[in-house]
Amino acid sequence: MRNGKGGAAVPDEAAGDRAEQREAGNRAEQREATRRALLAEGRRRFAEDGYHGVVLAEVARAVGVTKGAAYHHFDSKAGLFRAVVAEVQGDLGDRVAAAADEETDPWERLRAGCRAFLAAGEDPAVRRIVLVDAPTVLEWEEWRALDEESSARHLTEALESLVEAGVVTAQPVEPLARLLSGAMNEAALWLARSDEPEALERTVDALDGLLSGIRREQA
Asked: 141-150, long-range: CB within 8 Å, 24+ apart, which pairs?
């Protein structure tokens, strides 16, 4: 407040603006907190119950918001599922990159990243959401775009480094990356549905044999 004519108090416009900014910031934080809560609950339920077993209203109720709030953030159950798939794909990409970063040798970085991608299928969220439901619930191009943005991008970067270092025979990297990515996606889908106790070990062995075919002998 500040004094006006005759000593009367008038509002401090700057203070009012700051109060409005704080209120707007609080509302934005609340909206983001609600969105994160819906994402977390949606991720848990999609992993446990599968896409068709989840009801958006029940997700909203579980986090203490209205169904309208859930629709405001995600438009539909499909919208929530897309956001969850993107989040899980992003986590998968980080997992692949972290595994590769533990190795210093470029060839071992490739092998470690590929193994981490295959092993990630043991995670219930990755298995059910990304490998089982996403390819059927989402359009193929949309699912491929999400895969391209996460783990497939790391594969391309690793192959580019190996070609530049002369470890892999000089060749166009994009078709090679797509061939390997497709093979690993198929293997991961098979692993997600397999009950064989040694399925992962057998798949990793097969992967090593496949990768050895692109490595230069002199390397």
From this structure: 142/82, 143/85, 146/85, 146/86, 146/89, 147/89, 147/181, 147/185, 149/89, 149/90, 149/93, 150/89, 150/90, 150/92, 150/93, 150/96
**Rounded Cα distance, 197 and 190, in Å:** 13
Q: What's the whole-model pTM score?
A: 0.79
From CA 172, how far away is CA 193, in angstroms rounded? 33
Residue 172 Cα distances to 159, 169, 178, 207, angstroms? 10, 10, 11, 21
The Cα–Cα gap between 138 and 141 comes to 8
The token pair that represents 14 in the structure block: 């700057």
pLDDT digits (tens, 9 = 90+) for 13-68: 776 666 666 665 666 788 899 999 999 999 999 999 999 999 999 999 999 999 99
